[in-house]
Amino acid sequence: MGKTSTKGIWKVISASSMGTMIEWYDFYIFGSLAVVISTKFFPSDNPTAAFLSTLATFAAGFVVRPFGALFFGRLGDIIGRKYTFMATLLLMGGSTFLIGCIPSYETIGFLAPLLVLILRLLQGLALGGEYGGAATYVAEHAPAGQKGYWTSWIQTTATVGLFISLMVILATKNVLSAEDFDSWGWRVPFWVSIVMVGVSYLIRKNMDESPVFAKAKKEGTTSTNPLKESFGNRYNLKFVLLALFGATMGQGVVWYTGQFYAMSFMKTVMNVDSSQVDELLGIALLLGTPFFIVFGWLSDKIGRKYIMMGGMLIAVLLYRPIYKMMYETTDLKNKTEIVQETKQVVETSKINDSIVTNQKKYTDGTTLTEKKTYTKNKKEAQVNTSISINTNDEWTLIFLIFVQVLFVTMVYGPIAAFLVEMFPTKIRYTSMSLPYHVGNGIFGGLLPAISTYFVTHSKEAGKPEFYLDGLWYPIIIASICFVIGMVYIDNKNKTNHL
């Protein structure tokens, strides 16, 4: 492939990135609002079970991503990259909008979580077809020797999509009262999606097909059965399995630990105020995102392997110390309470309920707020604990999340170029999409639910450092991937078909 003009490649990057970023926004708005959603679409009598059910529904979208990769990957290798990822964009946007329209559990009962699950599965199918198309499309436009750099712009879209989802939530919370946000305002971020999808569709509609695919189609060398050629061919299947177990499996758990599990851990284990967590994560993501480009560019110079493997190894070694430091930063046992009268404010919520709020303040500026919800017969139903932390603790947590985001950029920045270079043009969309979405969708997507379950189980068992047990899952998976990748991946990537 010859040199591509910078002007042309920037047009491709802009159109591809915007659409992919919106799809990630759509996909992650569900996770960003998991704590709220658990109270709307699931029975409220057991908050822990409701939250775990929400995480399971969130994970369901990841589980079906490989099926989306197979279905849309096949279409992408037969009819083209452009039209396939336009279809995934519309499917994703429509599903996201409709989730924001579903009545609550109190209104329609078990039909609510069922409808959410169906739409979540459609989201997963759509995302399964989007990423492979965007990464392939950009790589096939990129100049030789610069594929790591140019595809790394696509790699930023997942983090940017998460960042924008957090910012939209914060903006909505700031505009509305707490009562309005809890009542109906949480639906606004879902509704906003439809506008962004419409704009992105108009931009993508005017894009040209990938020149590499267009050439293959003109010469009649496209695949008639991409699934058979991808997975029925033993030689190609070997590279599919290597991509999964030697790269994307570990990359997936590092990605979701550093961003989603960090957010879930602070909200549900550390009990830090939800809006404060969104702000901290947003700042850390903003600081860390440029490093996707840095490591993508560096992978063009020194190879993809050692950057990705290095990210996994450092993450495995540092996760437990990092999360221990995070937990101890806000642990009230390490703080001194200001001796004062505890104020109790009774608020009227529903006709038969009352809420008693207790507040404690600490010498370093930390505030603990406990809200106890009572039913009509004064039986205690639920205790909601929220900690507002001081500025010093905020910056400590921002730094610790930022370090985890750096691990993410190391494993994720070069991965798109690494994957597209492994497979020939006629089956590239299908072949790269499956290992990517199994690694990220199955191994990565299940992480928040599995790790939260481990923490909950260890806490109930009375273990002293229960909060660290959720890390065993990403540590074990990343360690296995590191060993396989170091042994079998060729840093020079002699399988380059571009």
From TrEMBL:
The lineage of its organism: Bacteria, Pseudomonadati, Bacteroidota, Flavobacteriia, Flavobacteriales. This is MFS transporter. It is a multi-pass membrane protein. The keyword Transmembrane helix applies. It is found in: Cell membrane. One of its GO terms (cellular component) is plasma membrane. PROSITE patterns: MFS, SUGAR_TRANSPORT_2. It comes from Flavobacterium pectinovorum. It holds the Pfam family Sugar_tr. Keywords: Cell membrane, Membrane, Transmembrane, Transmembrane helix, Transport. CDD domains: MFS_ShiA_like. Residues 12-493 form the Major facilitator superfamily (MFS) profile domain.
